[in-house]
Structures are given as structure tokens and as C-alpha cells.
């Protein structure tokens, strides 16, 4: 039986790198990201279904779930899409609360909403969920308080979900510092260029899917 994966934030970075790798093994892919042109370009070379939109938008999430149902179910949900928040990264004493609220919608509520919608099918197929988090969820980096707080919330949601859903594997994965557009936006292109490419993280994710270890936090190193 062909397996199906839904990957958010799939037009670049880790999401695209994982999609390329899964395609080699014959996975059917549903890819989403906000940038329609970049997503179409990425998905076109993979034979994947591309549905551009914002995962924080309930109507777009509904479209994604309908696509999953049209494909007969879901084996893997990868919540990779993420916002950075206010740039330059501000201290918490000056963090705009409205922007933090928006970041929580993207980084916490949207992944949970997708999980809730996908869970019946994932339970049926004994599927898996990968929530991409960050070391900023557990370390105190100046300026990263807003982003880190959202990732800490996502990690705890994952932790509890793993306890509540024994038939679904739930991994929350800290990929480490990667050379991505998001990191470059936060620290500058020169510093970001010293980080590892996202492709280096893909074997860690593939190992989870292939070996299905117990649910838990996974750090790529």
C-alpha cells in the first residue's frame, strides 16, 4: 500500500528536503506552504500535490484534510511550517503582544488543529506525527523568547498527545541550527551560512519513520 505524507512548510528548507527523500521511496505527498510559486516549483519536480496557503487559516486546513481523504488516508503528518515572529528579535520586555499572539496561532494552534483533524485517519493506519521544534524551546537565548515559547508549547502538546494516543507515534524533533531562510532572517546570512544544511537532518527523520521508536523528543546532532 502506498503511504501518504502531509508536510507543511514544504516549499524550502527541511520540509522540501524531507519531501525529496520520501519521494525516492515512493511516498505519495501532499505539500503546503504560503508561497504558491515556490511551492508549485518544489512540488512539480516531485509529482506531489501542492496546496498553497497558510496553515493558520482554518479554511486552508480544511482543504488539506479533504485532500488527505481523497488520497485514502494519512500515514505521516509533518508539522514543519513555522513563523519567526518579530525581527530584529526583541527582548521579552518589549515583545509586541499582538505579534506574539499571531506567532502562537502559526506555531502552536495551527499544528494542533491539523493534528485534531488528521487523528482519526492516523489512528486507523497507525500513522505518525512529526512536530518540528527547536532548542530555543529548552534553552534561554536572548531575543528568542517569543519564538522559543511557542516551540516549548508545541513540545508539551506533543508530549501529552503521545501519552493520549498510544496507536499513533508522536515525535517532536529539534533539528538543531540549520542554514535556512528563517535563520538568515534572524541572525544574518553570513552567520546562517555556517550552519548545517537541512538535508543533514533528513536521515534522522527517515530513521524515525522506518524504525518507529517510542514517541518522544528527538534531537538531531
UniProtKB/TrEMBL annotation:
GO terms for cellular component: membrane. Pfam families: adh_short. One of its GO terms (molecular function) is oxidoreductase activity. InterPro entries: NAD(P)-bd_dom_sf, Sc_DH/Rdtase_CS, SDR_fam. It comes from the Bacteria. Keywords: Oxidoreductase. Coiled coil: none annotated. Belongs to the short-chain dehydrogenases/reductases (SDR) family. This is NAD(P)-dependent dehydrogenase (Short-subunit alcohol dehydrogenase family). It comes from Streptosporangium sandarakinum.
Amino acid at each position: 500500500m502506498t503511504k501518504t505524507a502531509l508536510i507543511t512548510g514544504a516549499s524550502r528548507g527541511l520540509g522540501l528536503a524531507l519531501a525529496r527523500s520520501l519521494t525516492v521511496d515512493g511516498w505519495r505527498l501532499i505539500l503546503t506552504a504560503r508561497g504558491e510559486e515556490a511551492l508549485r516549483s518544489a512540488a512539480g519536480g516531485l509529482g506531489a500535490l501542492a496546496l498553497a496557503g497558510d496553515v493558520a487559516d482554518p479554511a486552508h486546513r480544511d482543504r488539506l484534510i479533504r485532500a488527505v481523504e481523497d488520497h485514502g488516508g494519512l500515514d505521516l503528518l509533518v508539522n514543519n511550517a513555522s513563523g519567526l515572529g518579530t525581527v530584529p528579535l526583541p527582548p521579552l520586555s518589549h515583545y509586541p503582544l499582538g505579534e506574539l499572539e499571531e506567532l502562537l496561532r502559526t506555531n502552536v494552534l495551527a499544528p494542533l488543529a491539523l493534528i485534531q483533524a488528521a487523528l482519526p485517519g492516523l489512528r486507523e493506519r497507525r500513522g505518525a506525527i512529526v512536530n518540528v521544534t527547536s532548542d530555543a524551546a529548552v534553552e534561554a537565548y536572548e531575543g528568542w523568547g517569543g519564538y522559543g515559547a511557542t516551540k516549548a508549547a508545541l513540545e508539551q502538546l506533543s508530549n501529552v498527545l503521545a501519552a493520549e494516543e498510544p496507536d499513533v507515534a508522536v515525535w517532536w524533533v529539534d533539528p538543531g541550527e540549520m542554514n535556512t531562510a528563517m535563520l538568515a532572517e534572524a541572525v544574518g546570512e553570513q552567520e546562517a551560512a555556517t550552519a548545517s544544511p537541512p538535508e543533514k537532518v533528513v536521515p534522522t527523520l527517515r530513521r524515525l519513520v522506518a524504525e518507529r521508536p517510542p514517541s518522544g523528543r528527538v534531537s538531531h546532532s
